[in-house]
Amino acid sequence: MSAAELSTDRDSQRLQLQRMERALVRARLAQPQDLSETDYQCLRYAMGLARIHRFVPRGSKRDVRINLGANATLADWLLAHLYTPLRSAGSDSERLATCVQAMPRVRELTAQAREALLASHPDDFDAAALDREAGHRAFVSVAGGGGGAGYVYLGAYARLMAADLTPDYLVGNSIGAVMGLFRAARRRIEVDEYLAFAKSLSRADVFTAGRRRADLCLPGLLQLHLKVLHSRFVTGDHRRPLRLDEMEIPLDLIVAGVRRRSLERMPDDVREPESGASRLLPFSVKLASRLWRLASFFSPALVKPLVFGRDQDTRSLHAVDVVGFSAAVPTILQYELRGRAGTSREIFAELMNRHDLSALVDGGVADNVPARAAWEGVESGRIGTRNAYYLAFDCFQPKWEPKHLWLWPISQAVQMQMRSNRVYADSMVRFSPTLSPINLVPAAASLDQAFQWGWNQMDARLPEVTAMLQPATWEAAGRPALVATETS
């Protein structure tokens, strides 16, 4: 097996172990009396230990790549003996009964793997650092696109904060990028202040008439200028625009790059939707026409996802500018850099040239709920640890009302994307009801309603989120009894 194949195989194993732990947590939430706290802690610790392949120990800046042989036996055994039972269609009690039967072997292999890892890395980390990596899952929040439907995220983030659950890393696009910007700027936010700010907005604060020509984006029916966000997200005495690397919570944003050669092969009415007599049509007719054409952009042959914030160059960009491109719906909303964005313009232009792109547009057309991008970010060392819990938000659900029939081809394209992203999320909150996706600047009453919807739906999922983020410790896993047995 080649190095690349081995890496892919280990990635698959880690994902399977991640899904096993999720299944274990859900089963015990349903039937807590069927598995003791000691056995539960041991199983979760074992699954975390089996996933370790590299990490940055707390207090260190060095990324340690571990000896995979030290915990490979544990990982292989867990997958061979518990993956299918935990993921089967049986009852929660049946799943947990299988776990109870497996505990003697799980304890033995976990102790052996832990000792082997410590023995093979005496200068890299101590027992406390290893136990933390195995038992503590960082909180990763993924927020998908969906226009005005995404205002439910305000309530969801507020509910998490009320439970003292703060993300360690955020990834988002489109409206998820906007909400991610507000959430990531400060670890502690004033929810009432942000909600009041959203209620104060008018359409003129966000949009102007679109331009027939565009620099880095596609021409749109409206221009997304985001002046109010540029005024709000600043730092220093000179009110310099806040950069992505200045977020208090690490933030990565997804933008779609339109492939140059593919765009050139698109029909003229897609590349230039407003030409000739169509310029004289009423605004509502123009919008409806462009919404139907939007489905054409949900194609990997036409667009590719770009992750801004993952590397040092894009991390130095102004955060609001990246949000603007991430929310620039093709042919409907265009975003342009302001006149004094010289360095940012160079970075964007170089990136487009490197990938042979014609334009930057809404990240949702390439990767609407970017759970995989978040997982890859963690695996690349974005936040040091590789042990994370992934909570994904999806607000773009199919709507069957006649007024939303235009959404059908788009929602189907998004569901196709979801197949490849779903496996990377531990929990997926698919919000419904939501506001309409085209309600981009809602009235105050609508915002209050969306906030409450988000709060209530997050509240229903809170027991699972809290349980997944509860640390599993080697001490609580019954270590003293195991040591006594080994000594005797």
Based on helices, strands and strand pairing, what is the structural class? Answer: alpha/beta
How many whole angstroms does the radius of gyration measure?
24 Å
**Morphology call:** globular
Largest sheet: 7 strands, mixed
**Helicity level:** 40-55%
Strand residue content: 5-15%
Summarize model confidence as the mean pLDDT.
Answer: 88
- Compute the separation of the termini in Å: 42 Å
Number of helical runs?
A: 21
Number of strands: 14
Low-confidence blocks of residues: 1-6, 480-488
Pfam families: Patatin
Protein name: Patatin-like phospholipase family protein
Domain PNPLA: 141-375
Motif (GXSXG): 172-176
Task: Write structural notes for this entry.
The strands form four sheets. Strands 3, 4, 9, 10, 12, 13 and 14 form a seven-stranded mixed β-sheet that branches. The protein has a three-stranded mixed β-sheet with strand order 5-6-11. Strands 1-2 form a two-stranded antiparallel sheet. It has helices spanning 3-30, 37-51, 69-87, 92-120, 127-135, 152-162, 175-185, 191-200, 203-206, 227-232, 260-264, 268-271, 283-294, 312-315, 319-326, 342-354, 364-367, 371-379, 408-421, 444-469, 479-487, and strands at 54-55, 64-65, 138-143, 169-172, 207-209, 222-224, 234-235, 240-241, 251-259, 303-308, 333-334, 357-362, 388-394, 427-430. α1 (3-30) crosses α3 and α7 packs antiparallel against α15. It is built from 21 helices and 14 strands. A motif (GXSXG) lies at residues 172-176.
